Amino acid sequence: MDATVVPAEADRKVLVRLDAVEQLYDRKIRILGPIDLEIREGEFLSLVGPSGCGKSTLLRIVAGVLQPTRGRVFLGDRLLEGVNRSAALVFQSFALFPWLTVVDNVALGLEARGLGVHERLKKAEKYIDLAGLAGYERAYPKELSRGMKQLVGVARALAVEPELLCMDEPFSALDVLTARTMRDLVLDLWASPQVLTKSILLVTHSIEEAVSLSDRVVVLKANPGRIADMVDLTSLPRPRRADAPAVREVVDRMYTLLA
Question: What is the pTM of this model?
Fold first, then answer.
């Protein structure tokens, strides 16, 4: 088997760069920042921290659906103005249209990209199949379990083939077993050569979840939200068992940081 050269972290292309980003409430009270952060091609990056530390705010700034009060956001070397069309969002609340079938929900974002009907349906069906939902194309959201609804959301986001997939606590509304299955599936999809998405940004309250999935974890503290530490996990091979000593050590370190 040919050896594969994995680029060093510093050599990877930077997809998104945050430069001294701050978010203020009423233009007076700083709730986030200043934040300097790079999201690199080919990495799984997670944001963890207590409620109110600005995790979801930061994710929305990266996605371009929220403009920072101060600072700048770059896509590569280009200043981001407006929505980040290289990113797609998966929400905690599924955010499906109940009057649309699975295939129509998945194809919805493709219509906004200007694709024709045939191409939209073909691509939507591809990602429905990759998400393990083949046979449910004509089902409505009310006919699906919570886990299946979230799979539709993941398929919809991946179908627009973003460089960056932004996920805001996508597993928190699921039972433990379903959440575990979903986490494994997301890693499998990310690693699949059929999926063009290069990087994932995950917001989670669960330190264990972040450690099990990520290449890097950004640990945030609150009041205002700021980076307390950046934890590199690339030396820990996947899959990562929660009871493995190296994994437990990293988890305990993060809990200490947030105590």
Answer: 0.91
